[in-house]
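Extended Data, panel c. Modelled sequence:
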Amino acid sequence: MSDKTEADRSGDNESEKALEPAADHENVDVEARRVKFYSVTDMSVGLEASRAAEIAQKFDAVKGVASVGDALELANVIKFIEAGLVPDRLSEEDRSDLLGRVPMIRRAVASFFRSVDESNVTSVMVGVPVFYRIDLLDELARQGAFERCQANSMLSALQATGFVLRDFLNSKALVKAYGADVRSLLLSDPLNGEILVQKYLAASTATPIYA
């Protein structure tokens, strides 16, 4: 016979509940765990390179790219492989195979972003991680999405997923494509004057501002 009282059993149940993960915790973490290439000297290179190699090895061109997060992660995977950042445990044959997969992965990424147009731009942008914002703008520019989408559609879609004016001004291609609309946003709020001050008066900035 158990010596535990009802209060003890109730306490045990509460402890077990506390250990249970939140229902959507895993889904939230998926984006946070994605591979990101920062530089060859970044402290996370070792771990990230191993994950990048695994993603490249498992990529199935037939299934293609399922989401914008997948597409941007694959674009970063390519950067690791082309920089020679692969796990030491890989044989020369495995390294050669990884490099050989790059064109296939690049085509899949390009195909995904070439499909972005007026009809789907809003839905495609959903769920872009903050650390992929620059990557997203680069890929959209590279695959001609700024030419296929009207300014209002593209800028609204980007804003809906969390982009702010400063993100727009960090992209030379976006400002070139939607210059008048971006400037209207810039002039619509006096607080944006800080951005202009940074552009014209700062001796140097970590990220260029195009306005």
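The longest helix spans residues 92-114. This feature is highlighted in the accompanying rendering.
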